[in-house]
Amino acid sequence: MVLPGGPDAHALSIAIAPDDLRQLAQHDAVPRTFEGGAGPLAALDTGGGAELGTVLMVAGYTGSKEDFAPLLRPLAAAGYRVVVLDQRGQYESPGPDDPAQYSVEVLGDDVRAVARVLRAETTGPLHLLGHSFGGLVTRVAVLAEPALFTSFTLLGSGPSRLTGRRAELLDHLGPLLDAGGVPLVHETLEQVAMTDPKAQAVPEPTRAFYSRRFLRNSAAGLRGMADAMLAEPDRVEELKATGVPVLVAHGEADDAWLPHVQADMARRLGARHEVIDFAIHSPAVENPPRTVEVLCDFWGSVTR
What we know:
By secondary structure, the chain is an alpha/beta fold.
């Protein structure tokens, strides 16, 4: 989820370089589509020989495949094929007009459909990663069909429903959508973001991309995903029972699911736990080098 949070003293100390274009980082991946349950799903695919395996990454609420852009070249150079996905109703993936079609179960079915295609295209390992709300969605995919996946990474995600400041923002989403649709939600969130020094430091080209992307969100998707994120039960024990190796990784100053919540989830899972310094809720764009290092080390340990 990439909704803005409120200022935090420690989080504000994590600098954003003025030339950091974040989701606009250059990469060599090519656009492609997969067939989901409600239509085409837009993706980027690095292709290549995938000597070490294939990775499927799923974005969070109001996010998109570009949230992983800074990881694509380094992971491809390390020997991985990487596929990053817009979920239905996000950015370049169309979605239905029924909020009920955005539950984690339905979205998880989309992830499994993509994973089956990737399994058919390669004989090597298939690693799954979900960021934020994407972690709740991908968890459902693992629970439904654990044999599809060699490993599973929860990046800045949690054991159950979202709480705290970001959840409070979501509570206001329905009335805003009723009053003015996606444009009014965007305008309101922009006003909130501009009170946050972290948001003010984001370069203008990236902010323009954020606006363009948000305005292409499906209104039903915004509503349905928000409802799903605020209602998700704790399924940690079910995930542990699958036996799929799990990595729990998050920024040191995560302001969605807080670091101590994610640490406890890792403990309950018996999972590897990594804290990524100089990162808040989106380590892939806030500290790509360390994120790549953490991921490659985990995937390598699993395949060994």
